[in-house]
Amino acid sequence: MAMPDRILIAGGGPVGMVTALALARRGYAVTVFEAEACVNDAPRAATTHPVTLELLAGLGLADDVIRRGLTARHFQFRDRPSGELIAEFDHERLRGDTPFPFVVQCEQHKLARLAIERLALMPGAEIRCSARVAEVEERPGGVEVTVETARGRESVRAAFLVGADGGRSTVRKCLGIEFPGYTFPARFVVLTTPFDFEAERGYCYRNYFSDPAEWANLFKLEGDDGRGQGRVVFPTRSEEREEEALGDAGVEARLQRFFPKRTPYEVAHRNLYRVHQRVAQTFRRGRVLLAGDAAHVNNRKRRWTPM
User: Fold this and answer.
1) CATH class of domain segment(s) 1-45+107-179+280-307
2) Which of these, 61, 57, 71, lies nearest to 105 by C-alpha position?
3) pLDDT digits over 231-286, tens only?
4) Kind of pairing between the strands at 152-163 and 2-10
5) Distances (CA, A) of 157 to 2, 30, 145, 302
6) In CATH, what is the architecture of 182-276?
């Protein structure tokens, strides 16, 4: 299939969908290929910073992101053993430098869905789910991709391709673009619970806890039901097995150490993440561009230790 004036996007996450929306608003025909059958709503990054809100405002998305998330003016650093507040930072100090002197805790699948809603109304915009970009070939004046679907494989030619297909990007690998950097031996456990730490401890929406034994981060999200969720991040031990870190006993022990209570924790999601620091050797080769995690992955949940 030849679509010489169309721009293809591999990956239907928030980066791919927002890129598609930005192009469609400028009059370009776009097709997004997403390998999964629907938007991945597993807990992932959820903090939208002022500069990103400015970008989203230009696409008509910022107000909806704010409405669907929690506005966080402050973030705090605490000593975990004592609970002492070490420092509090106030985004209000940025007023005058940005129209958004705050961050918004909004799960990234909500942003992807907002972009999809807009794209559905735009002529020339197409979203194809259960369609994985498996091969990429550069062509004179364009690019050709092979897409795997339930009906089999098909070839599509277009003007440009954006690879927004994640840290394991097939697009990047097909082009032979190196992804130098390193992967830490430690991993993160991310646990999501409806327990209200804010009500019980007075924590704000974004908290970082220093502890030489086991640091922790805590963020509050609205959740899909609007009732609120706490997302807690812990490091794993170097010898800890995945089944131990994610098993019921290990998860309960971590949460009880963080905030002991008489009843067991209800856990809505549990994930284990590897920690990478990698950047693609180039973000563009010919008519193919890399975006999001396909271009760079980095650790955004940093350990903090007071001086």
Assistant:
1) alpha beta
2) 71
3) 999 999 888 899 999 999 999 999 999 999 999 999 999 999 888 899 999 999 99
4) parallel
5) 5, 12, 6, 42
6) 2-Layer Sandwich (3.30)
